[in-house]
Amino acid sequence: MSWMGKRDNHMRSPINKLVEHYSRIEKQFKLNKNNKSYANLVTSNGDQQFPIQRWFHLKEAFSLELLETLITDWDIPIESINRIIDPFCGVGTSLLAAQKLARKHHLNDLEAIGIERNPFLQFAGETKLQWHHYNPTKLLSQASCLLKNNKKVSQNIPPLSTLHRKDVYDPDVLNRALTIREAIKSISLPEQAPLLLGFASVLEAISGVRKDGRALRINPKKQRMDLQVSLSNAWNNIIYDISLAPQYFSPDQANSFLGDGRTMTLECSKFHLQKDFDLIFYSPPYLNNIDYTEVYKIELWMCGFIETPEEFRDLRHKTFRSHPSVRFTDPVTITENDALHDVLTLLDAIIEALPRDHYLKTRARFFMEYFDDMYISLKKQLDVLVPGGWIFCIVGNSLHGPRDDHAKRVPVASDLIIALIARSLGFDVKAIQIARYLTRRSVHSEYLRESILIMRKQ
């Protein structure tokens, strides 16, 4: 009997051992599985019905309805929330959701702040939030002039190799687009911003590429949209939305700043981040190998946020360490804290389950880097949150390993690891709300899912 037990234990694969490890940890937290409404709320599906939010589509965004749903489900008094921060705010969905909350509940003093590392995404978010500053009549006149200007001026193409490929942009279309961009830059603020965002929103549609997961994919069969028609539609939609916005949003103080969400360090010397936040609401980059600098590189270069390869490389090195696209030089600090023993034991089990191939060291390194960044982030969040303040963190689990051998693909339960880190720092982890289960090429795992961590500062 004991021999058979030892034999069975010996024959268990590292992946099976890892899953058993997950199961033991899961029992330490409250796991909510039954609220199906969250499946749609952790995606941007349905947000096209809202003005402003549809100015630029970010596939990775969550729903504008998610914030209020969480506040309601956790019986948090609306009047107790005065300051909200999103340290990884992307195109400002969380901040626009705060404006929506303020409009519905007449919260005149609500302040929402976001931080974003990618300068294009930060610009897109801030442009949306300032909807109440734009004059529709001026925008209509300026858009009309831009579309009527047919002067052919030879433009210097940005030094991004992608833009020099004919299967990405027709040279004449590219030159015309750059001419329009230069004309937009001559327009004074604030109207320049929505015109440039409308310009950015059509760059994929008029190209031969599409955003596909972690990269831009060239699609020779793709039907490219007409530049003039696309711009006209984008700008008209923006102008129309400005008139609709007051029905949905309150023009309360909400701003997106360029900076590092991990340390909440801003690149704006005129603004100093205060500490007393009642709610932190965010979705960090997932551990999914996606370098968002790469995914949004056309917008970065075509809109003038990046002008040299050196700037592009520097930006990539400053991003959250969620991808192995670059070799990060920042040290891993998570190993220095004895309170994180359970976290490190679990990470060792994940690394042990990985295939022993030439990707092993790379995967092991960037797993440690990713959760080190989450550790750094949560430490800072603990510092800026008021006692009794809440955190809603939306995170996705992932699969790693050879794509052609499903049996060797390893589930990484980021939600459990982040919950362990948060608990070690002193947070009260109220629950892990499973929003939806994911499927990946015939691989089915109860740990392949998207979750919301609900935490509170004690």
Give the tags:
single chain; 458 residues; alpha/beta; 9-stranded mixed beta sheet; two-stranded antiparallel sheet; 16 helices; disordered N terminus
Detailed description of the structure:
The protein is α/β, with parallel strands linked by helices and 458 residues long. Helices cover 40% and strands 16% of the residues. The chain contains 16 helices and 13 strands. The strands form three sheets. It has a nine-stranded mixed beta sheet, sandwiched between helices. A two-stranded antiparallel sheet has the order 4-5. Helix 8 packs antiparallel against helix 9 and helix 15 packs across helix 16.
Element layout with pairings:
Elements: H1 2-11, H2 14-26, E1 31-32, H3 38-41, H4 66-73, E2 83-86, H5 93-105, E3 111-116, H6 119-129, H7 136-148, H8 171-185, H9 192-201, E4 209-212, E5 215-218, H10 227-244, E6 254-260, E7 265-266, E8 277-282, H11 292-295, H12 297-302, H13 309-317, H14 341-353, H15 360-384, E9 385-396, E10 398-400, E11 410-412, H16 414-425, E12 427-437, E13 449-457
Parallel strand pairs: 1-12, 2-3, 2-8, 3-6, 8-9
Antiparallel strand pairs: 4-5, 6-7, 9-13, 10-11, 12-13
Helix pairs in contact: 2-14, 7-10, 8-9, 9-10, 15-16
Kindly summarize this structure in a few lines:
With 458 residues, the protein is of the alpha/beta class.
